[in-house]
Amino acid sequence: MTTESLTYSEFGERLGSSPEAARSLARRLRLVRKPGNDGKVRVIVDLADIQYKPAPTRSPDRPRPDADALNTRIEQLPAELAKLETALKPVWPNTGSTSSVSATVVTS
Length: 108
Prior knowledge:
alpha+beta, three-stranded antiparallel sheet, 3 helices
């Protein structure tokens, strides 16, 4: 069990991740943190004890949702809502629309 005193940057390099990810991991694992003489925080860590795999980075070339298809679907929704409101009128005959449903509470 060999412990090392590493800055977040050094810790991140050893893990193959960013200094921010290393800082988050140090907090999550509750590792001992001490201020160094240079003003940087140092983490006391035994790298053999840490099981860490960095998350894969996101590719800017990754396929994105088809915005045109989503916009087309959004445009279809008001028509579907109108059909449903028309179908529900026999259920709620006293209301002009399902969006204006109200209730009266009767207490005895």
